[in-house]
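Consider the following input, taken from an annotated entry for Phenylacetate-CoA oxygenase subunit PaaJ (Thetidibacter halocola).
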Amino acid sequence: MVAAARAWEAASAVPDPEVPCVTVADLGILRSVEIEGGVAVARVTPTYSGCPATLAIELAIEAALRDAGFEARIERVLSPAWTTDWITPEGRDKLRAYGIAPPEGPAGKAALFSVPEVTCPRCGSRDTTRISEFGSTACKAQYQCRACAEPFDYFKCL
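Applying the prediction step yields:
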């Protein structure tokens, strides 16, 4: 049990390469880490099947486990599919502090076709407008706050 906790601690500290203010555990993409036959097996669910950061994330988790003294194996788990509902409350707070508005509302198909009312992560105003469907990555949209005039990314509900 101690080894599994150490392995989780090592893997869960890996930052997301596209949004380095949050870890893979904060995002909920690190599903589990278990010791199986002396090998630390990390199960990872990518944010979406075409995410360009998936391999980088898996390699970083494997390296973190090896640096912690474990033989490591990564298993990609595609079902159930990841949703933004898996982002931890701490992860949402970290996104906001970094200047990225966290997802608002539950994930679902309807969220993909709506323009949500989004809270500005800088000043807290709800008087915001979407500038572009896509932000710095495909999983984010670009918004601007009318109150403080600052642009910001919004992590879409997926």
